[in-house]
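stuck on this chain:
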Amino acid sequence: MVELGTLEKGATATIVKIENESAEAKRLQEMGLLPGTGFKVVKVAPLGDPIELELRGYRLCLRRKETEGFLVEVNP
């Protein structure tokens, strides 16, 4: 398992565990970032922040700080 924010462009993964209990993390869970959810990293900004994810039929841009505590399993 790795943190969501460490993935590179084109990677596909599934959220396995959420260790962050902040209000920000709860908001992201309400937006669909839940354990078992698959997603693809569509874009990564040149300096690595923000990253754009595609999940559940929509795209979501996140700062790396917002993804702390979201543990994922990279799909082959």
The chain has a mean pLDDT of 93. The domain at 2-74 is CATH 2.30.30.90 (SH3 type barrels.).
